[in-house]
Amino acid sequence: MEKSLVIIKPDAMQRGLAGTIIARLEQTGLKMVAIKMLHLNKALAQEHYSVHKNKPFFNDLVNYISSAPIIIAVFQGEKAIEVIRRIMGATDPAKAEAGTIRGDFGLDIEHNSVHGSDSVETAEKEIKLFFSEDEIYTY
Ligand code: IDP
Ligand code: MG
Asked: Residues in the chain with pLDDT < 50?
């Protein structure tokens, strides 16, 4: 059983796509075990994206993700990380296949609607950043 952290990014929130994206995630058979709405401050945004701190797009990305409220959730199940990466599609919506979340809804490489963890280690770190243990449910 794996857990993955998902973020519904500001571009999706602002277009009323949160429910649609959550439905697609649930349709995979993965179970939603935690969810909250947050308006990230800069420090938390920088921490979440710290692996990208030397990238040219880092400041823009931090400003974007902290620009408006987002939904942060944890999905759990077999191969949760890989399953979510697959249904999200490629980072750049222009390259993401039709039928993927980014292929269908992403606006551009930055405003690509959704985040999903990329490895077990990253998922653990990301989940800890946003959720305490008692906010993650078993049912
Ligand atoms: P991922 O979200 O598919 O894992 P990463 O390479 O980890 O992609 O990048 C994290 C986020 O940074 C992307 O989802 C996107 O919002 C943004 N990003 C990635 N590459 C670029 C870029 O070249 N220009 C602007 N923003 C980018
Ligand atoms: Mg990534």
From this structure: none
